[in-house]
Amino acid sequence: MTDRYDATDATERGSDEGTAREDAMAGAIGAGSPEDVGQNTFAATTESLQHTMGKDRPESGSYAFPAFDDHHPPDKGLIDDCVHCGFCLPTCPTYVLFGEEMDSPRGRIYLMNKGLDEEPMNDEMVRHWDLCLGCMACVTACPSGVQYDKLIEATRGQIERRYERRADDKAFREMIFKFFPYPNRLRAIAAPMRLYQRFGIGDRLRKAGIMDRLPARMRAMEALLPDLPKEEKILELTEPVGEKRRRVGILTGCVQRVFFSHVNAATVRVLAAEGCEIVAPKQGCCGALSTHAGREEESLDFARKTIDTFEGENLDNVIVNAAGCGSTMKEYGHLLRDDPEYAERAKEFSSKVRDVTEFLHDIGPVAERHPLPVEIAYHDACHLGHAQGIRKQPRHVLKQIPGLGIKEIRESEVCCGSAGIYNMVEPEPAAELGERKAKNVLATGAQIIVTSNPGCTLQLRASMKKMGREMPAAHPMEVLDASIRGEPVEELFQ
Ligand code: SF4
Ligand code: SF4
């Protein structure tokens, strides 16, 4: 883009005025001091920027004019809410990495406005939007209440409809969406992947230098491969322990169901111990990955099917233990607003959706907690903290465990780089963010990292492995389950 918003004034550091401004920024996002928010804003500028923004990156040459069609373009009213103050900049991971205005929330909103006004949608414009992680740190930070989440969701829908991606980019994305939302397809590839892990094929390929010759995206996928234990099945109906307090449904997820079934099993045990009858009907994908990637029709189809699945079960709540899924399911009312058959039903459904920690915090504990003498580092998944505003509930639930200490992570507002499919389609910035987060986690001195999103767990494990470090990871429900069952703390380190 040639005609750029001049952000110099909002991003300079070092002066007294700058210090006051940073204090204000820290205050705006609830951080204790400027040191708690993203620093080193310009640290990686030249190399990262060239690497990520186009050097050696062939363009598609796609050109769409006007940039947006009439089907839900980014809302001009929401765009005008942005007063260009820059408070969001220090928490935006891509701005933290590149120091580039057009890779900040303010810059991306400026480009949306350009698209509404006069500019075509072209490679460079899409590149800046593609680099957005959708982490929503800017929504938390913005003192003017700009709904960037709605803006980027509308923009991504337009990109996927109107912009012609390069053939290799398109094929890679299609491959992801042909597998990840479908547990049976994931199971089919899980078997050969188990053999791959058992025989250490990845390490052999690395030693032989073959892995280095694979494209960056394939290397990233390989590095993120989770351990693949045997899948634990969830019963379609689980009775409560003791007196029944609630009847709830549980979303078992796609990746969660196949690769993190032990998290689902722990969640069901905890809910049952807290007096819940749990219904786990046969279900498909909730549509979160597709929604965040702008694949509108596909995501709406998944949303309708999820509503159909749970609607007739007479549930008090639908419980979700994966942050990205929960934030999307709470948005069904908005996503299906044009569908006369589903609009009202979607609103009703969304009103029942709860993150599991939010739900447990609301109903209060009845099951006994046994001591777990352990120091944990709690990582706020962006789609729990920023998108759903759920930060105190998981901490509160974990603090009910005698002997457990929680260490806070520096720069907790900044994304770890996982962000749905981001660490597969944008491996370079994702790796930088992952290592940055891993260093901050290691610096806490905690024994274990605890987080509510499977993507964050995989991202942090892969980042630490790359750094030659290791730390066990667990979901809050695994920790709580261990405490309620009175298991030794060592079980968590397995
Ligand atoms: S969603 Fe995250 S990456 Fe995107 S503009 Fe906002 S803070 Fe930056
Ligand atoms: S999005 Fe909000 S915080 Fe960021 S520049 Fe605009 S008004 Fe300021």
Structure characterization notes:
This protein has 494 residues and is an alpha/beta fold. It has four domains: 8-162, Fumarate Reductase Iron-sulfur Protein, Chain B, domain 2 (Orthogonal Bundle); 167-224, no CATH class; 237-361, Glutathione S-transferase Yfyf (Class Pi), Chain A, domain 2 (Up-down Bundle); 368-493, Rossmann fold. It is built from 27 helices and eleven strands. It has helices at 8-11, 16-28, 45-53, 76-80, 93-98, 105-117, 123-130, 137-141, 148-162, 167-179, 183-198, 201-207, 216-224, 255-259, 261-273, 288-292, 296-311, 323-329, 332-335, 343-352, 356-363, 382-388, 392-399, 422-425, 427-442, 454-466, 476-485; strands at 63-64, 121-122, 237-238, 246-250, 276-279, 317-320, 353-355, 374-379, 404-407, 448-451, 473-474. The strands form three sheets. The protein has a five-stranded mixed beta sheet with strand order 3-5-4-6-7. It has a four-stranded parallel beta sheet with strand order 9-8-10-11, with helices on both faces. Strand 10 (448-451), helix 26 (454-466) and strand 11 form a beta-alpha-beta unit. Helix 25 (427-442) crosses helix 26. The N and C termini lie far apart (50 Å). Residues 1-46 have low confidence and may be disordered. One iron/sulfur cluster is lined by residues 91-94, 105, 108, 132-138, 148.
